[in-house]
Batch of 2 targets.
Target 1
Amino acid sequence: MTERLLLSGDEAVALGALHAGVRLGTGYPGTPSTEILEEFDRLGGRAQWSPNEKVALEVGIGSAFGGARTLVTMKHVGLNVAADALFTATYTDVEGGLVIVSADDPGMASSQNEQDNRHFARAAGAPMLEPSCSQEAYDFTRLAFDLSERWKIPVILRLTTRICHAKTVITPQPPVQGLREPSFRRDIPARVMIPAFAKPAHHRLRAKLAAIAEWNEAQGPLRIDEPERAADSPAKAGSPQGRQGRAPLGIVASGVAAVHAREAAPDARQLTIGLTWPLPLERIRAFADGVDRLLVIEEGDPLLVESLRGAGIGAEGKPEMYRFGELNVARVRRIIAGDRTPEPAPPVGKPPELCPGCSHRGVFEVLRDLDCIVAGDIGCYTLGVLPPFSAMDTCVCMGASIGVGLGLRHILPEEQARRVVSVIGDSTFVHSGLTGLAEMVYNPPPTGHVVLIVDNGTTAMTGQQEHPGTGRALDRSPTEQIRFEVVAEAMGVQNIHIVDAPRSGQTGAQQLEQLLRTLLAKSETSLVIAREPCVLAAPKIRLYEKAAAELRQPSSCAADIAD
Amino acid sequence: MAFVKNIVIAGLGGQGIVKASDILADAALRAGFDVKKSELHGMSQRGGSVTSDVRYGERVLSPMVPPGEADVLLVLEETQVAINRPLLAADGVLIGPDIIAPGALRNRKSLNVAMLGALSAVLELPETAWVQAIHANLAEKLHALNEQSFALGRDAAVKGAVGQ
Ligand SMILES: Cc1ncc(C[n+]2csc(CCOP(=O)(O)OP(=O)(O)O)c2C)c(N)n1
Ligand code: SF4
């Protein structure tokens, strides 16, 4: 019997990457993408967390220039951070396949926005594949590498939360064989994007996209489901008459919306597109000619429908109210019916809150009691915004706490400016707080500023990943540790303090409170690092540290001898 | 559409909802069905509401159970019964945590598997599929305890004539 596995989309991408011969996986954690690299590592692949998505993509570009198949993973907002690299990487010729996973989060199960990253394919000129289940996540990962290598272009694999985290059945294929070994081949005009080379490179990019569109028309991954007139006569489905006859309703869809649509409208004829950029417009046009009503079912922005209309294909989209949130079968039924009446409110469950004993609790009690104006950031500690703390005033994107805090300090009247504190997590600080610190030293506000790193020794929010501040790599093996206090001192921050994060409602609070009072009264730049491991991660951190200590023992002896 | 069985498992973070749905989905896979399961997870923090959808049958399309179409709603925490009830079909079966007598479990942590035992009384999945799925999804040292809990839940459901 063929092997049947029940895998999440993330696991399927990891397996697909392994079977596609990926030599290096890079990324930065972010729900719902995080499990891809963790699984790739578990399967024996080489995977590493970068400080942020931009660096992850740059490492990936280098690896692909060197001839290795490379996977780069991130959540949707991560691609904003990596966008600078992406928009020029598409001009270059990659040698090994380069596949970038963008895991979008329509409905914002765990994100600060629900941006639709299909825009990036169009804007950056990158082909995009969108699987509708784990089998396709596996197949499309492999296909993405083939396309990327054939046209020497980075390819985006766009997943969404329901693809990443839903488990569906897959049958894997044998791994690829005979990939060439990485080796440097000089190709200056294809990889050095100065204007003289970038101008022809842009023309080459458009030619590549045209060729890929042609391939998509001829043999791209696309499925047509015929109307299932009656559940009890499946023989009719796909019969020659069915195929040739006109269908009253034709649906065009992609991604998870395609399976919702198929379930909601089994009596429609449905075209499901796999390679959604560049689009197979002629195949869609031919499909449109055979149906009376052509309806586009897409989650998020009305991108597909606008592309079809732009190509002169008369397609109907969804009412604006369905731009927001995820789609599901019930919502697709409403779209088909043109129902614009208010939707039933989904059940309101108990919202998440900081774990009992979480080290962030004591910190936010102090910030609340001091009535600070808190420029906040993203991580578990963002929950400091909720009662009983209500001690966060801004939260925009990772790293923004420092810049936003500085902006407030520059502009507010002095008595308010003196209450502003930037609060940022340890992983977030490495991700995008370092440049904020440089800004603070370079353009200090008249009242100075206070940055507070809530250092719980892990990337807790996304499930406890390592980062350059923990001293451990993705696979938990020891590596060099970046020490924030040393960095801050080298940058020229005037006051640097390390304290234990106070236990909720306990004496440590007085120490932190006193320290913050003192620093807020000064007109200097200050960094406070409040340390206490995340309670969920602490037992594991102790295990990793023990393992690392055992590992160090013999090797440090060897080093002594070598010295 | 061909037959599809819809189950929603609900409770609070930390109760092992996702683990329970993994075991159920694995049991259905072992029984030869097409399976999809889906839940929203991502927040590390404990204590928020969690639901997980499992669907199996000849061919499953959407990974989410449409509201009002759950054949079975399995709820591990009393406070979560009311908010999730709208997910249940008119003729669906609700199995609440009261099916397991207080103090009956040797270890309260295995409530999720005991509830699966109760669920097994209303689903037609072979017992071997359940046992294999429990073994495949839990560490070996937990097998005996969880098999006991599973049996306890199953007995409770049979005696209580759930779904009759
Ligand atoms: C650009 C971007 N990448 C990734 C994420 C996902 N994400 C949100 S917060 C966070 C890091 C949280 O770690 P840390 O700052 O250490 O705070 P903790 O959760 O440990 O309190 C990550 C990876 C994001 N929101 N934006
Ligand atoms: S996971 Fe860790 S950091 Fe997040 S709320 Fe729980 S204890 Fe706090």
Note: Chain A has three domains: 5-178+188-220, 223-227+248-337, 359-549.
Target 2
Amino acid sequence: MSEQLPIRLTVNGAELSAEVEPRLLLSDFIRHRAGLTGTHVGCEHGVCGACTVLVDGEPQRSCLVFAVQADGAEVETVEGLAAPGAELHALQQAFHEEHGMQCGFCTSGFLMTSAALLREHPHPSDAQLLDAISGNLCRCTGYQNIIRAVRSAEAKLAAQAGDGTPAAAPAGDADGA
Amino acid sequence: MAREPLVGRSVPRVEDERLLRGNGRYVDDIAPAGCLEAAFLRSPHAHARIKAIDVSLARLMPGVHAIFTGADLHGQVEPMVFQIAKIVPPPVRESTGAWSRVHPMAALPTERATWVGQPLAVVIADDRYRAEDALELIELELEPLPAVVDPLDALAPGAPLLEPEWESNLALHYRFSNGDVDAVFDSAAVVVEEQFRSHRHIASPIETRGVVAQPDPYDGRLLVWSSTQTPHQLRDFLAGALRRSPETLHVRAPDVGGGFGPKGAIYPEELVISYVASALNTPVKWIEDRSEHFLATTHGREQVHTIALAADADGRFLALRDQITHNCGAFNILGLVVPYNSLTHLVGMYAIPAVDVEMRAVVTNTGVTAPYRGAGRPEAVFAMERIVDRVARRLGIDPGELRERNAIPPSALPYETGMIYRDGTRQVYDSGDYPELLRQARRLVSDEDWEARAGAGREVGIGYAAYVEGTGVGPFESASAQVIAGARVRVAVGSASQGQGHRTTLGQIAADALGVPLEAIEVVGGDTNAIATGFGTLASRSLVVGGNAVAKACAELRAQVVEAAAGLGFEVGADDPLPLGPMAALTPFNPGRPAGAPAVLRAQAEYYPGPVTYAAGVHAAVVAVDPRTGEVEILRYAIAHDCGRAVNPQIADGQVIGGTMQGIGGALFEELVYDDEGQLRTASFMDYLLPTASEMPEFRTAHVDVVSPLNPLGVKGLGEGGAIGPMAALANAVEGALAGHGVVVRSCPLTPDRVRALVRATEPPVPTAQETT
Amino acid sequence: MKPAQFAYHAPTRLEELLQLLADGAGEARVLAGGQSLVPMMNFRLATPETLVDLRRVQALRELSVRAADGALLVGAGVTQARLLREPAVQAGFPLLAAGVAHVGHPQIRSRGTVCGSLAHSDPTAELPALALAHDARMTIARAPRRREFPPGSTNRTQPWNSQSERRELAADDFLVSYYETAVEPGELLEQVAFPPLPDGAGWSFRELARRHGDFALAGAIAVVAPGRHARLVLFGVGDRARRIASVEELLLRAPAADAVPGDAAALLEQIRTQVPALVAAAVNPSGDVHASADYRRELAGTLAVTAIAEALERAR
Ligand SMILES: Cc1cc2nc3c(=O)[nH]c(=O)nc-3n(C[C@H](O)[C@H](O)[C@H](O)COP(=O)(O)OP(=O)(O)OC[C@H]3O[C@@H](n4cnc5c(N)ncnc54)[C@H](O)[C@@H]3O)c2cc1C
Ligand code: FES
Ligand code: FES
């Protein structure tokens, strides 16, 4: 049996401690140890983006991070965008309205990538938007409606914030939509 | 007062919220207590004799519970015999002399491995990490044998044989001939002949395959979760292979992260995991990883066409000849399905008096091929639409104009092609307006100065692809509808969804047929216990066949409810909404149920479609090509299409755009490349490139929807259409752009290297460094 | 696709990190952003016995402009995303900013480090080429060879000797070949210094990738101060990024900005006609599933011409 290391991190605001093998991928930790299966795994080599989560506020591939590396970090997953039962986050609402999803497998990754984008750039240029979401693959939608959804969320968030203030609400914040 | 129908409206999808909150249930999210995980040892050789598989060391690793090889499965798991691949409907045989043969595929072979990635053994361990550790300790002794990769090579005398009992690698053959083709070719004003290759693709949904098999300790039944398009077929296949009765198997497809064809096939891993779970009497999970997916999930699209088209001086098509060679991969698992689609979709929307098409489908030491969105149609359309452009260029006629000249006019519909469709019926285009589709597509690309937009140094081309698509193929689909507690109706269908939004579209159909609001409908699918029979979601058939089955079941249920209501003293008029509220009392065990009222309100229906109904489309691509670098940019991609009655226009457009983007991926970026030894050189997303949002072009769409007369809903299938046109449209556009250089595009993807090579071949050689310095 | 087992260390002090690397006797590898290493481990193409993670070493997070010479100092812990966000980079190092923006996607750059990309030395990567174009200098550190303490010695207060050994190399000496640099097993690329481009120099960054964010099929960087300074760096067309001396010589003969206009036109014509052949003779690309060697060789010439023209334009 290999060595187990203790880690402590927060996931969607909740503190978690665990003992993990160093090789356990953060994606597997989130899905199978923390039980948050909204984060998906499509390639395990960093290309598809389905596993994208926010680590200390930045979008990252959870399949290219070992859980031990997230020791002390704040992780946000799709489950943190809107509290259970609360209204959807503006991005989630926009993906619904604009039909920015079909099978839904890529969707969590797109939501997390877009959440980070809109926090850093409340009004991204076309180039910024494309640069961000081109790091995620979707095989169903052809992307057109995903782009529309992100633009629509941008407007919703700006309206919520009263334009000019930081756009995206922090994760776990229930007043999403 | 009749309600506003839901069919035809873009109601938002009912399936979204769960998925958006991260509460979807995909197969890897299913985690029964004590579940073990599997990893497969796969053949590193394309063709090899298996001499020994020594698992003794691996078996000793901590955390490893069991290892099975083919020898362990012998006598326990029947080899897979793809019965469907042998089926040739008699009318098809009479018309084309078609035959198809299959050789059995052992779930884990004991004698020979015939493609790289074929599973040879399975490790069952505490988790996937440990299972993979153990794989490294298995000692595999293989004796490499000569391999054949290219479909034309496979037919050469002396080629290595995939099945030694066969005298050749030919697995399927047909020939269709109509009219005196030779005579027409001899006398026609123009004859153009070319060889075009449709290259190998993989559908590559973002969710790979996966299976969780879970024995029930109470009654010995086996629950099998699989990321499949065809749960009922899987159940019946498992029953045969594991020699169990179908009743002891419960197959469920949970949320499926994209299908596109490959998840409609049955795979050795599904048999092995089901067997292993019962043998060990414990739940076992296998989740395919992306490398395995490239190697072991079905591929598609590989065909070689040697095609010739004869026309008169005005460009009227007179005769068509095509010899097609189709690569089945290591096994012929689906027989006529894909190769025969290539015949019945080759001629498309044109009237051509004389046609001669021969198909030779061969087995090779490569991954198994099966339907991938379009299933034989994109391949045929690529060849046909390319040769049409070659003729246009030869005659100096605008390619759009040439197509209009040859399109079958609406007045000629219904139009008999003289061919027999795969279901054994005569092929008849039932409805549509092909010239109008062409006009609309041309209009969508005629409103800009493309040269100006392309800028200096780049050349502009416009390319078209026109196609028809037989949709809604049988044999049948089933549906049931039942009133359940809470004033709701549960509709169960045999066809599940992999993202097409069936819960919404079938819900719309059910709600209209019943006369209830959408919120009162609950659609369940993908579960062999929810409904006893079903065919599955493939081949652009769900809405046509499944949708009409739902409409039928719901109409019957409505009649039952109306009658029961009358018994309770309500009168419900023909156009009245259905009073479900009071009916909700009519559920079993409800103490409030009035005496004498029925305990169950439930209707079941099968819908057996007649001949297929024809959707159609014309794609028009505008490209800018840089002849110095070979870069291709799509300036606009326009789609005119006919999907009959659109049940939900937003979802319909989503299908069309999504399919088109997949086709664009195949035309410009994606290619599965095998080397001569049969090693796959593109087994990761770093080498097999799916298009991203940055590669998405500007889209324009136009609808020329003509309601189908062949089914009560008037719908046509549209799941595949988008993927049919892009390879041809983009190849035509690029060749058009480079017309001045005189290039001929014979295959895709149109990578910068490939495009540049076409141009370079026409340029004078570059001076070398010595000459200039 | 799951990695094999390994031992993991995440020390907080640089000396400790260096000692762990030295103790690893070549079986210990630096884990920086993991954006190249972890995919290889998931495919089990890399199976290191030990990973030494530098994420907790504060001293490696340095990102600043050195007062003495204006050079940008980038510590081993600095991610590509942080580099791009740094105002001093956007203002003073536009070539670096333009080039690093081509590295993958935000989700990669948020972890991938500048030094990790240099140490990884992928021949198609942007950063090694940017380092050459900037005349960057690399600092490589290693733990001192263990000293034998004489019996009874009192000098045992420091378990890790703070006098680590360091050497500094020019980018051209740092890059060796495919996935190979001057960093020896047990060593750390501690920092890279990017001097600013010479005053008045124009620059250009050109690459062609099959899709947005992909590793390039080939790329060219030109930096030209007419008559004074010339760099032409090509990447993706050989075992490592390289400067093309023959073209740089040609560019050094470029007329200054205030020269007669006819000279400039003549120079451009000379570049257009001569550079492709000079480049073709100087590079040695290999082919893969994305493009053939021939294509890459020709593309390098085409990109070089475009980059030089743009750099000259900006220099004026
Ligand atoms: C999908 C995807 C797309 C990408 N696209 C691009 C692209 O377009 N262009 C591009 O250039 N890169 C690209 N990358 C790679 C990315 O830039 C990596 O981040 C980078 O190559 C390595 O940096 P890292 O910090 O992640 O290093 P790691 O992955 O941690 O390490 C890489 C190697 O360098 C060694 N190493 C790391 N740091 C040091 C050090 N300080 N001293 C000594 N050795 C060290 C490690 O031991 C390892 O061998 C891509 C990666 C992915 C997953
Ligand atoms: S699973 Fe992490 S990027 Fe694909
Ligand atoms: S919605 Fe299916 S992959 Fe994006």
Note: The first helix of chain C runs from residue 14 to 23.
